[in-house]
Amino acid sequence: MKKIVFLTGAGISAESGIPTFRSAVNGIWENYPVEKVATHKAIVNNPDLVYKFCNELRNKYAGCLPNSAHKMIADLEKDYEVYVITQNIDNLHEQAGSSNVLHLHGEINKVRAVDDYNLLFDYTEDITPDTEIRGHKVRPHVVLFGENVPNIEIASKILCDADICVVIGTSFNVYPAAGLVSYVDIDNPIYYIDPDPAYTPDYPDIKVIKATATEGMKELIKILNGEQ
Ligand code: OAD
């Protein structure tokens, strides 16, 4: 089986009702000052606000369902070895049935022990900086700006021997995730599905499919099947 690796960003979940981060209308960072709710400095200096923001996000995402793009990716497992590397903190890829999902920026449905990065718990109720689970103070399991991205090395290894790479719905603004495409073998194709694709001069051979995730995935499948 050929190995196909999807790199997904907020855009893939837009049609599931989750706003992207940088959209001018309803973008998450339009409504919340990023430096106050999503930075390492913020969780140190004003943790209450960061925890409140994460509680709100988790509650907002709770009713969202995967859309047909998430499902089409999961269905490709019948014919390909499929990996998903996502910047998203929602669990819509898992809900759609994808087996190999690597989260670069954490998961909003989990909290982790403040004193042990690897000790995760399900995040089923709102938390505050005082919340303890099994004797551990906990924090949202999300990567804030200014924090390490521990899964980046695993992600780069997954991409090194990808036969096909497909990027969906990201603005290529946030590093190190935005640099991952450079690990794909230069002879192998990279597709980029986005209705408003970013300018990517570093990847001159990238094949842009200018469409929403759900429409673009239909096109991609035709291409994979040799119909286009
Ligand atoms: P952005 O909000 O920066 O970009 C979203 C992308 O999705 C844009 O390129 C849009 O054009 C595209 N888009 C919008 N609607 C779409 C649709 N229906 N189908 C496909 N694409 C669509 O989101 P990300 O690039 O994912 O990190 O942001 C990266 C990181 O920045 C996030 O993981 C988050 C944020 O700050 C952290 O919180 C650490």
Fraction of residues in helix: 25-40%
N-to-C order of helices and strands? EHHHHHHEHEEEEEHEEEH
Q: How many strand elements?
A: 10
In terms of DSSP E residues, the strand content is 15-25%
Give the radius of gyration. Answer: 18 Å
Query: How would a textbook summarize the main sheet?
Result: 6 strands, parallel
Structural class: alpha/beta
Average pLDDT across residues? Answer: 94
Small molecules bound in the structure, each named once: 2'-O-acetyl adenosine-5-diphosphoribose
Order of strands across the main sheet: 3-2-1-8-9-10
How many alpha or pi helices? 9
Tertiary shape: globular
Straight-line distance between termini: 21 Å
| Uncertain residue segments | none
Give a brief description.
The protein contains nine helices and ten strands.
Structural summary, described in words:
- By secondary structure, the chain is α/β, with parallel strands linked by helices.
- 29% of the residues lie in helices and 22% in strands.
- It is built from nine helices and ten strands.
- Strand 6 and strand 7 form a beta hairpin.
- Helix 6 runs parallel beside helix 9.
- The protein starts with a strand and ends with a helix.
- The model has no long low-confidence stretch (mean pLDDT 94).
List keywords for this structure.
binds 2'-O-acetyl adenosine-5-diphosphoribose; 228 residues; 9 helices; alpha/beta; four-stranded antiparallel β-sheet
